[in-house]
Amino acid sequence: MLRYVGRRVVSLAVSLLVASVVIFLALEVVPGDPAAYMLGINAQEDTLAALRAELGLDQSRVERYLSWVGGMVQGDFGTSYTYRTPVAEMIGDRLWVSLPLAVYALVLSTLIAFPAGIWAASQRGSVVDWGVMGVTQLGVAIPNFWFAMLMVLVFAINLQWFSAGGFAGWENGLLAGLKSLTLPAVALALPQASILARVMRSALLDTLGEDFIRTARAKGLTRGQALRRHAVRNAMIPVLTIIGLQFSFLLAGVIIIENVFFLPGLGRLVFQAISARDLIVVESVVMFLVFAVVMVNFVVDLTYAWVDPRLRGRR
Hints:
Blueprint: H1 2-28, H2 34-39, H3 45-55, H4 61-73, H5 87-122, H6 127-141, H7 144-158, H8 174-208, H9 211-218, H10 223-234, H11 236-252, H12 255-260, H13 266-275, H14 279-307
């Protein structure tokens, strides 16, 4: 098991190193000068030079990269060009919106998908199965931002059950914060629940055809008992993969939804930083999100080893 974990840690470190290089170089080729953007087109050259020196833009690319990576290792993500605020503080403030939103959406997605996928698999070929698959196909096809705007129209404008946007703040209570995140979480969760339900159904149907399931049936278990006691656990490997990928997507891919609902999260921060050419904020937030994605995949790999002990002994 320790060797398995060690290999995954090395893979994690290499992935982060490669991602940091790609992110840094991708933003380096973006045209334009942040100092000129901040001071305007009429700025004097000496003023521009002073600001570049203050921001560290007069250094070579290698020096800037090493300074950026070295700072991140120590928890220093740099200082925003626009707000003159440490980026780490900005990420910390916005994370308390994006992370609960991603977790909320993932919980909703799982609570919807597991029963739907298991129900469809247990009723294979029936009207129930066709109905569940039809609904999930529709959920996959509908863009989440369009569904989000539809929910705003119905539940915020017409029924007035929720606000159309904004975040109440956790200081106003857990229920107030969750209510602000409910519509965005549902908009994010339903397409993901559709994908997860289809994967759950397919994995269960594959598992139900295995020899150990036929043996369990021969010993007197009904199809439903064999499914609940044996098939579900053994079908979890592909399902865990999708759950890990979905959480990564939900955390790193909320830019559109956060802008639809005017949520002060990481997605909106990236959008605002791109608009202001605040490149240190963009690259630091993206690197943080990459780190979160890689860590989620690392946890998923460890969960694989827990679910399937055969993986622990692989060399």
